[in-house]
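Two proteins, back to back. First:
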Amino acid sequence: MQILRVAAASRPKSVAGAMAAILRDAQAVEIQAVGAGAVNQAVKAMAIARTFLAPHQLDLVAVPEFFEIPIDGETRTAIRFRVEPRPAMALE
């Protein structure tokens, strides 16, 4: 599974493009974010990725979880999103 690390300075549209490309290949992707700003950019990227996937009749599902990561000798709590593709639901 590919891992995309998102920072507060990450551009959501760029992250969304990378995420959509992986999901179009029917693969799951892991998004890692440390800090509120990074989580915000990751969530924006997921919303944008949905628009990139719609023409391919795909949607995504994201499962968030906490995990700990060592940064500069310290253990920090981060958010990890496991993002998987799924067929888009038809509108009725």
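And the second protein:
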Amino acid sequence: MTVDADAIVIGAGPAGLTAAYCLAKEGRSVIVIERDPLYVGGISRTVDYKGFLFDIGGHRFFSKSKEVVALWQEILPDDFIERPRLSRIYYNGKFFSYPLKAFEALLKLGVFTSAACLLSYAYAKIFPVGQARTFHEWVRNQFGERLFQIFFKTYTEKVWGMSCDEISADWAAQRIKGLDLAAAVVNGLRRSLRLARKRSGAHNVGADTVKTLIESFQYPRKGPGMMWQAAAHKITARGGRILMGHDLAAIEYDADRQHWRVEAVDIGGRREIYTARHVVSSAPLRELVERIKPTPISLLHARALRYRDFLTVALMVRKGELFPDNWIYIHDPSVQVGRVQNFRSWSPEMVPDGMSCLGLEYFCFEGDGLWNAADGDLIALAKKEAAKIGLVLPDDVVDACVVRQAKAYPVYDESYRDNVATIRRDLEGSYPTLHVVGRNGMHRYNNQDHAMMTAMLTVRNILAGERIYDVWNVNEDAEYHEAGGAGVRDALDSVRLVPEKVAADRAA
């Protein structure tokens, strides 16, 4: 039997390229299909606009997994710089350090509001909501109702475009697990009193550190796109192929020949057919299921999955220094912008000398009024809102551009868990050589390092010829999610499938 490759990888984002790179290193032939005609890296790409470089969302490089850090260094050994981590929250016309500084927060919120927050926190601990189902209930239990209203509700509803009472508690448990008010206050006191020890090499975070509280991180000097361009180069150097501007049209498994037939359409509309023993998909789970032939029984569940999109308005500013933050969370409901990136603070090499570049991020749904607005209108809105917040005057903006990002975030609504579980059972039961990885591939809002680890473990499964590791536990298992140092081995054991469980899964 002749096939074109050992594996076809769908999507050239962090998960897809990690899978392709690890396979190519082991001498396996690989073909990567990527929709974007220019950029690899997916949402972690770096856009180049007239010499201004900027991310789609901003991506810190830190991980508690030594294996992920080692892979970053292997792919991009000489281009990391260490950057201070500084972010703030804009609320009620004031800027709050994040992570919080206890005395600063007390002063800016006022004694009465601060006291009310502490009383609300105490009440929540004494009278918690049993079996919290929603984001609102989970955060209320963890921080109290008053802090939920001040520091969680507005920003979260901007991001998701839905009420916090409609968002699953899974979202909170995954994204802010390990951070509680007591830990934040203790850390804030240490920071306020300048007792916090500075860490070196913070790209590999200590096991006792909550990721939200790190004070520095590693970053490619010209943005995260450097990492994925280097990965793509190394893949092709080892004989792999990366097909840019190719969209997945159909995917079909030939049980008799035991290989996959993948149909792709290039940017000119020409259809191409490729075959492989394995398919690794980081494409949105909904899109993957819709393209499988014959139609999977889980199609309706896949079509029920939802995504949140967003766009970045990049403002080029005629000033070299605006503010030191990497980014600012905008909790004020009087403006539509949700977050502001300051790309010079990510790396000075991303912006020409004497200039700055701000990325104002607007969360939306593909096809809604904001998404469909003309670029000129979006730029005018961004300039107006940046001035209202007090970041930059409109006359200082000398150029601007708009970048839209579809399916940036998988939505954690009340039905997503059941839908994903049904799709997973269907695909794993029917197609043992089809592997889903990464954020959109698994409909999991994971970080870049978690997406990479799902790909690394998937490659181990492919090389072993069986499912040794359960990649779905990369995000669900708290010990893996936050494991570091010596905990990495325990973390891998936590996602390893025991033989009895593998047998049971196959029998089911």
